[in-house]
Description:
By secondary structure, the protein is α/β, with parallel strands linked by helices. 30% of the residues lie in helices and 28% in strands. The protein contains 11 helices and 21 strands. It has helices at 15-18, 78-94, 134-152, 168-171, 220-227, 244-251, 264-277, 286-299, 311-321, 342-358, 377-391; strands at residues 5-9, 23-25, 29-34, 41-45, 51-57, 63-69, 104-109, 118-123, 126-131, 159-164, 177-183, 190-194, 201-205, 234-238, 256-261, 280-282, 303-308, 325-330, 360-370, 395-401, 420-426. The strands form 4 sheets. It has an 8-stranded mixed sheet, with helices on both faces. Strand 18 (325-330), helix 10 and strand 19 (360-370) form a beta-alpha-beta unit. The termini are far apart. The model is unreliable at 436-440 (pLDDT under 50). S-adenosyl-L-homocysteine (SAH) binds at residues 211, 216, 219, 239-242, 244-245, 261-263, 266, 310-312, 331-333.
Amino acid sequence: MPSVGRIVLKSGRDKPVRNGHPWIFSGAVGTLSGDPQGGDVVDVCDAEGAWLARGHYSPSSQIVVRLMTWDEDEDLDGDAWRWRLTRAVALRARLGLLADPDGACRLVHAESDGLPGLVVDRYGPWLVLQALSVGADAARARIAPLIAEAVAVHVPVRGVYERSTDDVRDKEGLAPTAGPLWGEPPPPSVTVRERGVADPIAFDVDIVAGHKTGAYLDQATNRRTVAGWCGGADVLNAFSYTGGFALHALAAGARHVVNVDSSGPALAQAAAAAARAGWVVADGREDAEDADAGAAAATGTGRMTNVETNVFGYLRACRAAGRSFDVVILDPPKFVHHAGQVDKAARAYKDLMYVALQILRPEGILATFSCSGLLTTDLFGKIAFGAATDAGRDVQILERLGQPADHPVRLAFPEGAYLKGLVCRVMPGRGDEAVTTSTA
Ligand code: SAH
């Protein structure tokens, strides 16, 4: 695709581009020539007119160009997508994530894989594509067969389905869109496997109606890590979605996991996967609870309870009822969508951690996460400290968690880092009865 437009940057705005940052903000643009339409290829030059890079134009976004090449000789045609997709797939193959035909992983992590605005996740033989920028949107029909071909070298691929339904498309002036792009359409539910502490954990994914592309693959390694702290434990898995943390915790020997989420369909999927794995599943009613607890205790089987409610209220209800846990997992949705929301989000994260620490037993473990990229790791640590201070508990950080290797972060694009987590221990005080739970 030849360049149809040329942007000359304002003086002094070329340094990030030279360093490989892939975004041109509208405020950095001096002049635009040619008549590019959304998705067209444009050249970007410094204030003196020297060629810097080339990418796709997005007129209604604050990010007016997403750069793809810094090589003046490279055309942004099909082959430009093809070799980058193959490079991204090669990383996942190297990570061993393309060995299991029923495995799941992120295949393409957008800017961090040199493919701006493009996300592709794999659930067994089904690939799910999200186009989050005008450039990726315009190229998606070309991308679908290319990614299928690159993955099929390693494992069978039956179809590529589009789930371009994320809100960030608004900022690009794009409407939500979904549907099959290549091959067969996916079935209503796909069962995939994720590596657990011991054996793989099976869980169900709803590609068509689930959140994001169907699941939160970014927590795969953190689920194993947290499960390592759950042996023999009573676990509260807050913001559980389809119970990923719960299934791993039960497989690692948790006694009881309570999933709390506002999504009924997600909890139904958690229950189905748990029942299939042989765990005792309660429906969250207190009367059923006692019978199920007895059945689980009699067989020594782990137990799952699913509660469809607001986490903020549930935590307070536990505190009021004097209910306590050995492990609390907090994995809320993204609270910060733009910089102006950081303060309010910080209060919400603090509130969750504050009440969670109050309902943890001595020796209890808090696993707390934030997937808000605009909230820094440093601030997240400070929020945890504030919550511990207010809760009057002495807390140690045991592990610092982040993104798995299939969600890489390019050094030239620090915005690609968004997920952070802390595994903390409530230090028992003098006279506190030490609770014996087997831990990692
Ligand atoms: N821990 C999950 C991912 C959580 S995503 C996993 O490992 O797969 C965030 C979840 O929080 C979503 O499932 C969403 O339905 C739920 N949610 C958002 N706000 C909520 C609230 N106030 N109370 C309960 N659940 C909420």
